[in-house]
Amino acid sequence: MSRVLVAMSGGVDSSVAAARLHAEGHEVIGVWMRLHGVADAYSERSRSCCSLDAADDARRVAGQIGIPFYMLDLEREFDAAVIAPFLAAYAGGETPSPCVDCNTLVKFGVLLGRARLAYDCDAVATGHYARVVDAEPATSRHGDGATTARRSLLRGTDPAKDQSYFLYGLGQEQLRHTLFPLGAMRKDEVRALARDHGLATAHKPESQELCFAPGGDYRAVVRERDASSVGGPIVDADGAVVGAHSGIAGFTVGQRGGLGVALGSPRYVSRIDPATNTIVLGRREDLETRTVAIRDASWVAGEPPADEFRAAAQVRHGAAPVPATIRHEGRHAAGNATWTVTTDVPVWAAAPGQACVLYDSDVVLGGGRIARA
Q1: By three-state DSSP, how is residue 29 classified?
Q2: Helix axes 218-225 and 84-91, enclosed angle (nearest 10)
Q3: pTM for this structure?
Q4: Residues 102/82, Cβ–Cβ less than 8 Å
Q5: pLDDT class for 43, splitting at 50, 70, 90?
Q6: Residues 49, 102, 121, 356: which is the catalytic one?
Q7: Considering the domain 229-282 in this protein, what is its CATH number?
Q8: Bridge pairing between strands 232-235 and 278-282
Q9: Which CATH number fits domain 287-370: 3.10.50.40, 2.40.30.10, 3.40.50.2000, 3.90.800.10?
């Protein structure tokens, strides 16, 4: 058995993850990460995983299980790795995916490093619905002749809860020291196990919002941290001005509500142009495409399957994966796409800045950020 640091958010999932590992005989240490102060003054019993109420819930569960519990201040690291890129993406007319950055750089970056150096732990565990297994072939050879098991990242067994989309940035070194105790469980099984253990979080509602935007108003975070946002025109597909906006950070590709424009038939944000501070609208069919360029590609195995290969592409969390051909387009200047994803059928509202994740059945191959056309 191993010594494991469990990231405890104060929710039922991470609570059960800690309880399962402890029951299996692992030496478990619980830690709650303070990532920001936004939720401190939020309403009592906040659904945010980062409120002080959540910290209290995590501490209570650790006491019930009988494991040591610590609070770890990672506010500075979270601001640099998650909030700053989040604001920069919106200012640049893109739609960020902060959960990808948090997982890759904070939970399985900074926290994993602390786990191994400060807490002498072999691994970090979380309540994510995803799986890590030995890959085939099971070993890869290093220059010194040693072999290390290669790991694969898979979707969680419960399709309604699968979170592998947000984990595509994890590489081999991270996966060798990562445990997902809930990966093969359904949500109802997790709730039942929490009740069986009498955990304080057994009936706690799930957190459904960005942890640093309690109440769900991410625009408030943008307004607070970026005062440079200015208004501009909203135009239709022909360039005719049909309205005005108060800042491009309030919009994302595919958005229909909150446009303040009535044109007789539904319109959606089809493009955000930061150079001209313009929001472009289109009909639903205008947002369909079969070609998506991705940048900042990351591969779970450490390298892509080939310069051209087939995979299933998922352009946002909750979207259906579609068969596609992925082709390497060479190395370009920073920020430009190096891979092109050509889907067999159109995908809708592929928003620049969001993740495009590539799968081989349930296996996560890797992915990247959707680039501006």
Answers
A1: strand
A2: 90
A3: 0.91
A4: yes
A5: very low
A6: 102
A7: 2.30.30.280
A8: parallel
A9: 2.40.30.10
DSSP string, 147-199: EEEEEEEEE-SSTTT--GGGGTT--HHHHTTEE-TTTT--HHHHHHHHHHTT-
What is the DSSP pairing of strand 130-141 with strand 147-155?
antiparallel
Q: Confidence class of residue 212 from pLDDT cuts 50, 70 and 90?
A: confident
Query: Whose CA is closest to 34, among 87, 104, 106?
Result: 106
102 among known catalytic residues: yes
Q: Which two tokens stand for residue 53?
A: 């109420």
Catalytic residue among 49, 121, 211, 356: 211
CATH code of the domain occupying 3-196? 3.40.50.620
Domain with CATH 2.30.30.280 in the chain: 229-282
pLDDT digits (tens, 9 = 90+) for 58-92: 999 999 999 999 999 999 999 999 999 999 999 89
Mean of all residue pLDDT scores within the chain: 90
